[in-house]
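Lecture 7 notes: from sequence to structure.

We start with a single chain of 290 residues. Read the sequence below before looking at the structure.
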Amino acid sequence: MKNSIKLIMLFVFSVIIVGCKKEDKSPSYHKGDLTILTDESFKSVTEALADGYMINYPETKIKVVTRKEDLGFLDLLQGKARIAVMSKELSPEEVKAFEEQVDMKILPAKFAADAVVFVVPINSPKTSISMDEIRNGLQSDNKDFIFDGTNSSNLNFVAQKLKKQPKDLKFSVIPGSQNIIEELNKYPNKIGVIGLNTFSRPYDKTSEKLRELIKVLPVENNGKLYSADSAGLREMKYPFTRVLYFLTNEGNFNIANGFIRYSCTQLGQMIVEKEGLQPYNIYKREVQMR
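Now the structure, written as tokens:
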């Protein structure tokens, strides 16, 4: 009888141990490693959100890797990464490719309003730029507009806005948005095209130095000037306002989906705001008077 009881207790104990081991291996949002692919233009806000997530969940380790937007999307399709940050509107062909290869419905998780901005050296006499200037300039052999490269989010977005293919535009290239700002004074007649998040952090020393080197041009559209400020982004009146979103091929609630949920909650949206961007999910602030 005693031997039977011992065997039963041993069996129960073994089941508990095995169950615990299985639980440790199960998907989890609060521990594990994750690599996020992001275009350089929104690297800063992505890193800030990753830092916030790791502070809240110390057993997670998130690595942010810079990848051109088009190439990051391809990596996601091929299963080389679990999450990527995007800004361009995907074509029907791209949506179909995602849903067929990943075997999931595409669900963009929107988390911030950013912008593509047009900049000139701080001492430039130019004070604004029109949509016609942008459209005509990107068809000119002068190649007066400087982008950070092909396959980049900035080029993709401007091309979409003008209803063109990136390959149909004529432009110059200086790799890296920060390099464009730092080298723009060598090309006084050129116009840099960069992402706002490159220098949008209000109290960041590097951002402050970059802002001192350039002038951001308001864009004239239908006789009105629009700036890439908080009002222009919030109301999406600035013509080159873009919405940043996450795409994931993760089908369960693991670390990638945990990170996405965090980024879209009030805490994540506060980080977006501190980055100088417009939170996509605006939370009502209530003040109680006593």
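DSSP finds eleven helices and 13 strands in the chain. Keep this in mind for problem set 3.
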